[in-house]
Amino acid sequence: MTSVDQLSQQPTSKTSAVESDTKQQDNNNDVLFPIVGIIASAGGLEAVTELLKYLHTDTDMAFVLIQHLSPNYKSQLAEILTRATQLPVTQVRDRMVMEKNHVYVIPPNTKMILSQGVLQLSPREKVSGKYMPGDAFLRSLAIDRGTKAIAVVLSGMDGDGSLGLTAIKEAGGMTFSQCEATAKFDSMPNTAVATGNVDFVLTPQKIAEKLASFSRDFKHSD
Fold first, then answer.
1. Catalytic residues (predicted)?
2. Please, are residues 181 and 189 in contact by the beta-carbon 8 Å criterion?
3. Phi, psi of 127 (to 5 degrees)
4. Whose CA is closest to 99, among 65, 63, 56?
5. Active site residues
């Protein structure tokens, strides 16, 4: 944009200044779009790929994938998932501001949380038991988005995501789990279901379809 173009868009009266302020307020409200936290581990890539394949590109939601990765693994997950969807897929950088209709992928060897719409990275924590990056992210998502927080727990061998999913349910958000019949490893989704806090137990394709339905409801309620 040229300097002339920029000058032509500046408010030239009190009325246009008020209109500018109103537009800015609308933009601020628009920031509070729903965010979907997707937790996956062993066998999860196939499930995530199927979910993204059937996901509409105009849901006005953002999607964050917490895939369990080896700490020393150079991830090509974002590139792989780009083949499954027309949505932009990005490996997260620290303090990345989220945009709707985008997919964000956690980098290896990191912990990631959400704060005021910004993805924050820190070094992976050393723990004595199993590392649960999904729970950490979903808890932060519950605080940040409340009723516009959505949790999806897919295939995996441990219980990651269950505590975070419960936090989202308690905040008034929505929760999904992959059905046992389609999960290569059902420990993670079954542990989530056992909490009693899962709203829908579906195939990845049906989860995508349900998210599209809910996106229409969110748009009408705003």
1. 41, 68, 160
2. no
3. -130, 155
4. 63
5. 41, 68, 160
- C-alpha–C-alpha distance, residues 139 and 31, integer Å: 19
Contact predicate 68/40, CB 8 Å: yes
Where helices occur in the chain by DSSP H, the ranges are: 3-8, 14-30, 44-53, 77-82, 133-145, 162-170, 187-194, 204-221
**Inter-residue contact 47 to 40 (CB < 8 Å):** yes
- Give the separation between CA 23 and CA 28, rounded to whole angstroms: 9
Measured in degrees and rounded to the nearest 5, phi and psi for residue 153 equal: -110, 120
Report the alpha-carbon distance of residue 143 to residue 168 in Å, rounded: 8
Q: From first to last of its 222 residues, what are the pLDDT tens digits of the chain?
A: 444 444 344 444 443 433 433 343 344 445 589 999 999 999 999 999 999 999 999 999 999 999 998 777 778 999 999 999 999 999 999 999 999 999 999 999 999 999 999 999 999 888 777 889 999 999 999 999 999 999 999 999 989 999 999 999 999 999 999 999 999 999 999 999 999 999 999 999 999 999 999 998 777 676
Nearest C-alpha neighbor of 153 from the set 143, 166, 142:
166
Give the whole-angstrom CA distance, residue 169 versus residue 202. Answer: 17
Terminal-residue alpha carbon distance, the chain: 32
Q: Which domains does the chain have, with CATH numbers?
A: 35-220 (3.40.50.180)
Instruction: Specify the pTM.
Output: 0.84
Token representation of residue 130: 């199993």
